[in-house]
Design a protein that fits this description.
With 413 residues, the chain is mainly alpha-helical. It has 18 helices and 5 strands. The chain has one domain. Helices cover 56% and strands 3% of the residues. The strands form 2 sheets. It has a 3-stranded mixed sheet with strand order 3-4-5, with no helix packed on it. Strands 1-2 form a two-stranded antiparallel sheet. β3 and β4 form a beta hairpin.
């Protein structure tokens, strides 16, 4: 009996098996990192500061990037929910707590949650995929997208992406038939406090309210909106308490190379669209006849290069209200990453796609056509490519260009 058949026969045990497989693979690729704290443990430091009654850091983690500096105080500019996740970890293990192992554990939840979502879609008649197809899609998300390299790093940026993916999956589960509006709202609110663009994943819930006939049920709307508003108020209070401005997360005080653009043109704007379109869809690896043979820009690789299976989306035109909701959600979230001042530098692939990768995978799941040999081949190739990225990124710098010329190839001061 094959491993896939064994998992399929056990039905509801598949998510547990998927979690364990992902945990082993992520842990093996992370390797010795599991035993250490990453170079950018911002959320651990913030959690430790909170436990000592401070909103600021009295000293910045040695060697860590992206401090927001106000006078003699250091602040973490990134949204605060991931730091809250680390509070119990820091309570147990102290300020030296490992962020890598926690990130790996959280990342391993993603394929398990995806299988739970896919099973619910099948039970509700929204998906015709077989359990075997679901396993292929779970493998694609886990090992065939930039989630793989992000899951084995620790580090502030990648931990936030991992947590956001889990929240997106919980949000979709809660949104199906608009069945759990409070949980859906909690996920949107916490998503905003993790990766701000995920605030705009609300179209799927709105579509499900319409499709399920609940659109005029204001109590459901209130249950959905209330936690989003609470999260927004908490974020505003946190910002005001630190900077005297409810809308200031700390980006104005960053000491980074992008600070000129942030100060002059703002965090979002059409000025940034061209560079982000190229990063998302146009960047190819450099190839040479001699070592290292492959060269990757610090801006990363295009989405379809790191995950060729996404090319299957060109045939996945919406044929149901749920599919329309997914596509609208991708557009609603994705537009903010395309208008953002940063391409995601430094990265293996376009990591901002993780803000909406869950919805793209679900679009593939909703396609009524069966997975073909071409589809299986594209998934396998995606896994091979992202395995290379997960193994080499931040370990083998000869494959990556971090020089100023590579940076300015997309960003012109």
């Amino acid at each position: 009996m094959s491993a896939i058949s064994w998992i399929q026969e056990r039905g509801r045990g598949a998510p547990i098996a998927a979690f364990l497989v992902a945990l082993v693979v992520y842990g093996a690729v992370a390797g010795s990192r599991l035993l250490t704290q990453s170079p950018d443990p911002h959320f651990v430091a913030q959690a430790s500061a909170w436990l000592h009654g401070r909103l600021y850091l009295d000293r910045w983690p040695a060697g860590a990037d992206d401090p927001a500096v106000v006078g003699t105080k250091f602040h973490v500019a990134f949204p605060p929910f991931p730091a809250a996740v680390f509070v119990p970890v820091v309570l147990v293990f102290g300020p030296a707590a490992g962020d890598v192992i926690v990130t790996v554990l959280l990342a391993a939840l993603a394929p398990a949650l995806l299988l739970v979502v896919l099973r619910r879609l099948r039970e509700r008649g929204l998906s015709t995929r077989s359990p075997g197809d679901d396993l292929w899609l779970a493998a694609l998300l886990s090992f065939g997208t930039v989630l793989f390299f992000s899951s084995v790093q620790g580090r502030v940026w990648y931990t936030a992406h991992v947590i956001a993916v889990d929240l997106c999956l919980l949000y979709v589960w809660a949104s199906i038939d608009a069945g759990h509006p409070l949980l859906a709202g909690v996920c949107v609110g916490l998503g905003f406090m993790t990766r701000a663009p995920t605030l705009f994943m609300f179209p799927l819930f709105a579509e499900e309210m319409w499709r399920s006939g609940h659109f005029k049920r204001w109590r459901r709307w209130a249950a959905f909106v209330a936690p989003v508003m609470v999260a927004g108020l908490l974020a505003a209070w946190h910002n005001y308490a630190r900077f005297g401005d409810a809308s200031e997360f700390g980006y104005s005080y960053l000491t980074v190379r992008q600070q000129h653009d942030i100060t002059t043109y703002g965090l979002f704007g059409p000025r940034y669209l061209a560079r982000n379109l190229i990063a998302a869809f146009g960047l190819l690896p450099g190839v040479s006849a001699g070592p290292p043979y492959v060269s990757i820009s610090g801006h990363g690789l295009a989405m379809w290069v790191t995950t060729p299976a996404l090319l299957l989306l060109v045939r996945s035109w919406p044929r149901s209200w749920f599919q329309y909701g997914l596509w609208t959600t991708v557009a609603s979230v994705g537009v903010w990453t395309l208008l953002y001042q940063n391409t995601g530098w430094f990265q293996f692939g376009y990591r901002f796609s993780l803000d909406y990768i869950v919805f793209l995978i679900l679009i593939l799941a909703m396609d009524a056509r069966p997975l073909t040999r071409v589809a299986y081949a594209l998934i396998v190739v995606s896994i091979v490519i992202n395995t290379f990225g997960a193994v080499t990124f931040a370990r083998y710098p000869q494959f990556y260009r971090a020089d100023l010329a590579a940076y300015r190839a997309l960003v012109h001061d």
